[in-house]
Amino acid sequence: MFCSLGHQPNQSCRGSSLRNRIKGPLVVTSHVGSALVHDSWRTTMSGGEQEMSSYYVGVDVGTGSVRAALVDQRGVLVAFADQPIKKWEPQFNHHEQSSEDIWAACCVVTKKVIQGMDINRIRGLGFDATCSLVVLDTHFCPLPVNNEGDSHRNVIMWLDHRAVNQVGRINKTKHSVLQYVGGVMSVEMQAPKLLWLKENLRETCWDKAGHFFDLPDFLSWKATGVTARSLCSLVCKWTYSADKGWDDSFWKMVGLEDLVADNYSKIGNQVLPPGAPLGSGLTPEAARELGLPPGIAVATSLIDAHAGGLGVIGADVRGHGLVCEGQPVTSRLAVICGTSSCHMGISKDPIFVPGVWGPYFSAMVPGFWLNEGGQSVTGKLIEHMVQGHAAFPELQAKASARCQSIYAYLNSHLDLIKKAQPVGFLTVDLHVWPDFHGNRSPLADLTLKGMVTGLKLSQDLDDLAILYLATVQAIAFGTRFIIEAMEAAGHSLSTLFLCGGLSKNPLFVQMHADITGMPVVLSQEVESVLVGAAILGACASGDFTSVQEAMSEMSKVGKVVFPRHEDKKYYDKKYQVFLKLVEHQKEYSAIMSGD
Length: 595
Ligand SMILES: Nc1ncnc2c1ncn2[C@@H]1O[C@H](COP(=O)(O)OP(=O)(O)O)[C@@H](O)[C@H]1O
Ligand SMILES: O=C(CO)[C@H](O)[C@H](O)COP(=O)(O)O
Prior knowledge:
Keywords: Kinase, Transferase. Its EC number is 2.7.1.47. The chain is α+β, with helices and mostly antiparallel strands. Among the domains are: 24-298, ATPase, nucleotide binding domain (Nucleotidyltransferase, domain 5); 379-476, Up-down Bundle (Methane Monooxygenase Hydroxylase, Chain G, domain 1), CATH 1.20.58. It is built from 18 helices and 26 strands. The strands form six sheets. Strands 2, 3, 6, 7, 8, 10, 16 and 17 form an eight-stranded mixed beta sheet that branches. Strand 4 and strand 5 form a beta hairpin. Helix 14 (461-489) crosses helix 15 (506-516) and helix 16 (528-541) packs across helix 17 (547-554). The longest helix has 29 residues, at 461-489. Bound molecules: adenosine-5'-diphosphate (ADP) and ribulose-5-phosphate. The site of adenosine-5'-diphosphate has 16 residues, from helix 11. Adenosine-5'-diphosphate binds next to helix 11.
């Protein structure tokens, strides 16, 4: 059933593209609207001759925006563009998007990154996206996922928690597929959302539905017309097994037997490994919309966190003084930190970690098992804490007067008020439990809530900055908690590889190093998720023989941030408090639910 990662007919291999050479000047950097274009088409070769590189377009659909990059075969981003996408929250815990709006944004950013470029040198296109659920009818038109009947809003976002009741019933079945999602299915996965649609929108949505796609698979279908699903999406979010396929008994047991009856045609019965080329490549229609040449290779896609993992985990670490230099790749933990944080660890054999998703075979790096820990809100939590504080308008005004981002301003403000002590010590009496949207890992408990202890009457900028710091630290303690669970189950981790929007925040990075005691590697390209998407396009083009080869050629170490071991005792004490917080929260619930 699986395609191998092979060459597409009529496409030259990497060796021949390297033989195309031109002469001319190089390197101009300019801004085009919201796009950054770095014209390094021509790379100087020895003897003054210049090599004509091949390029790939990577498209990354995050929670808040769509990004695209033009990436060369060494993994260098030569152009970048982004565009916000619409989100609706019609009621608490319902989060919706529009697949048409998302596709339109993909077209805008792709056109921007290829502006002024010789598009014939673009050899592959790769998509990644959040694991949101897209619903289309039998004619591939959007169907409403809401009571209002608004078919424009046809995407249930990954962070939508409407299906709490449904996931509770699914977990009560104790079906064996649950072993492969950490023992407990998350409300963020697709089976509970499908059941919710069947039980709540039967006539307007469920009965009319022809196709349920994970968002990454929707994008590759839009580009190629091929409805094949990525092994990544199906294994990680839909209970598919790389080795046994669908399990009929699960779908029948949870009340979704109608999906089995038509041989899974609505949720996918053709499955391909990430990076495999799809059909005849880019369709003429999609080519027109994206501004790319028709027929270029389009890759089977990945979920965004997994693309981030590919973009960072395979880098050559020699010469950076890292302990993982002499260790297998399984000692590396990729942490993709955006709206949420995802902790991606790989292993040769399956490792069952209670409360951590997986083990998933070949869902990220082919041939390896994957465990995925996660925190459902991290970037979103920091924004929530900062924007909800009484001193936020003052912060905004002061940051904009200095032409700084609010986070750069807060970081420098913390440096100012810390005096002689390390900045992290400012939270000695302020502690946060970060599960404002439930706990994804390692407790897998969506009923957990956020906690803050140590509040005072003051509401000034100092107070806001310290609350922000305590929140960042709580997120890092959450990562430590996940790492401990993974190690207790058999992982042996030594080094973190961070990417995503939050990895641009030096305080966030330093706190992850200090609190976990592990060095943090940042990639040369800050937009590493896009490098991951481009790696897919490069594999589909046939320019690399395997995902592993593309990873080692295209992901590069940029900066390493080492932990301040002298602060360890302080963070160990704060970690003890962190663990007490959740213990106490559970005690409060037990008291309140008792007689
Ligand atoms: N330069 C920066 N400094 C601090 N935080 C940042 C920076 N850039 C992005 N972020 C934070 O990263 C988060 C978004 O990350 P991103 O990877 O873009 O998210 P997503 O993929 O979920 O759309 C936001 O919470 C944002 O505030
Ligand atoms: O569930 C996930 C990956 O398995 C991601 O958290 C989800 O896709 C959202 O990602 P992001 O925070 O980057 O927007």
